[in-house]
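Here is my example:
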Amino acid sequence: MEQEQFIQEVVPLRKQLMSYAYRFLENLDDAEDVVQEALLKLWYMREDLADYRSITALSLQITKHLCLNRLTAHSNKWEDLDGISVESEILSPYTQLEQKDSVAQIMRIIDRLPNLQQTILRMKHIDGFEIDEIATLTGCQSEAIRMNLSRARKKVKEHFFKIQS
């Protein structure tokens, strides 16, 4: 599928996808992020879109899975913050609080990353996907995933150390 055909057939679905994502997430910003990710995935899949009977059904399915992943990531994030590690039981309350605060700062930094880096970082470290699985799901090459993952980690590290100093 060429760029012009993609613009004619896929981009008009944006409003429908926004409505669908908003019903899941109940947050306009999160819905917008999910729709952008879905359109990005469809863009990377554009060569194979002719193989599907309904691009609308495919786009809704992708949006649904992204919404569910986002909801799962949010619930996992809070579970992870509550129980940082088994070692935390033997640490002082002050150290436990410091760790919890650091995790919260890192999560806020991740929230400010570009959508693609944010998604890849979460898929790798929160959802536990391997790089090849992420590449398959996003339609990107493994090297591109590795590069974006590396850039995301570097940005998180830089911002975290700026905050700490």
Remarks:
- DSSP finds eight helices and no strands in the chain.
- The mean pLDDT is 81.
